[in-house]
Amino acid sequence: MIHSIKRKWIYILAFCGVLLLSACGKEKKTENDPGYKKQPSKVVGFSQLGAESDWRVANTESVKNTFTREKGYELLFDDGQQKQDKQIMAMRKFIQQEVDYIILAPVTETGWDTVLMEAHDAGVPVIVVDRKVDIKDEDDYLAWVGSDFGREGQAACEWLKSFADAKGIKAEDIHIADIQGTIGATAQIGRTQSLAMACRENGWNLVASEPADYTEAKGYEVVSRLLREHEEINVLYCENDNEALGAIIAVEEQGRKVGTDIKNGEIMIISFDAARAGLRKVLEGKIALDVECNPLQGPEIERIINDYAAGKEIEKYTYVSEQIFSADNTVKEIKIGNDSCSITLVTEELLNGREY
Ligand code: GYE
């Protein structure tokens, strides 16, 4: 009797052992085993401000392609639809969900003090990308990655100055309309300020400055109206490519021609971003100059997160590198402060190899 009870226990234990082993076996699947799934080790919340332009779409893709499941991330994405309130709500949700990091692409500079303080108090490091935040306590976010928008504007104006000199166009014959981006966004502030300063310094006529929210539809609408109101406009300084695409349609619809021969009635278009659709118009001779704004910030953000996790010192501001594009070789190089910058000629090959 005792023997048979003992035997029964031996069977039960052996059975449990087999179960345990097979369960352990499941857990020990390695990366090379079929069906292996890596558990997310870092949860990252990304509050993107919207999807208004080709640049923005490329920026979102860059972050999504960087923070992938394969690399051990879980990315929580929220589209703010151009509304700061919506972005703040998304950030509060990320904080509640106890994410490891927040990436914030803010729609405008001001109004972030409270929510960034909340993130800081909750111990969630925030990496601000693209546009900057204007807050009292800079310690409330870890770092910022983006472009030098004032410098981009300077590049455009230096090129225009050199181009006008080379073609014998007098300063008083240059009549510019500034088609601005979303008011209060760092890109708008920098690009607008550089143009205003260059107009004062060079004696160019700044006919009008009006926002078009970085969209093609608004660019078309604003340019259509401005051309009717101010016949003298011969340079359209569009603060992004999508506005420039809308501007081209507006100009052509009114029976005018886009191009660089402003002495003979053409309207010159200057743009920013140098995304593929914009560069295509450069190649067609419809955009005279396109100053690049690099949206591929994902890898830089990841580097910051890795450095932070490794306890390294973090630079507060990281500027991404950018080029200047034209299909016209009148101006080969410009000076911005002490730096010389060459102008890259757009070709079909260049367009084919373009990432965004
Ligand atoms: O130039 C524009 C976008 O903030 C740099 O926003 C960004 C700007 C970019 O919608 O296309």
Structure report:
There is one protein chain. The chain has 356 residues and is α/β, with parallel strands linked by helices. The protein is built from eleven helices and 14 strands. The strands form two sheets. It has an eight-stranded mixed β-sheet with strand order 7-6-8-9-10-12-14-13, with helices on both faces. Helix 5 (149-167) runs parallel beside helix 6 (186-202) and helix 7 packs across helix 8 (241-253). It is elongated. 43% of the residues are buried. The model is unreliable at 16-26 (pLDDT under 50). It binds beta-D-fucofuranose (GYE). Beta-D-fucofuranose binds at residues 52-53, 55-56, 130-131, 185, 187, 214, 240, 272-273, 293.
Task: Give a topology summary.
Layout: H1 2-27, E1 42-48, H2 54-66, E2 73-79, H3 84-96, E3 101-104, H4 113-121, E4 126-129, E5 143-146, H5 149-167, E6 175-180, H6 186-202, E7 205-211, H7 216-229, E8 235-238, H8 241-253, E9 268-273, H9 276-283, E10 289-292, H10 298-309, E11 317-319, E12 324-326, E13 333-336, E14 339-345, H11 348-352
Parallel strand pairs: 1-2, 1-3, 3-4, 4-5, 5-11, 6-7, 6-8, 8-9, 9-10, 12-14
Antiparallel strand pairs: 10-12, 13-14
Helix pairs in contact: 2-10, 5-6, 7-8
The structure holds beta-D-fucofuranose.
Beta-D-fucofuranose binds next to helix 2 and strand 9.
Which percent band covers the strand fraction? Answer: 15-25%
SSE arrangement, N to C: HEHEHEHEEHEHEHEHEHEHEEEEH
What's the arrangement of strands in the largest beta sheet? 7-6-8-9-10-12-14-13
Radius of gyration using CA atoms only: 27 Å
Number of discrete helical segments: 11
- Look at the helices and sheets and give the structural class: alpha/beta
List of distinct ligands in this structure: beta-D-fucofuranose
| Main sheet specs | 8 strands, mixed
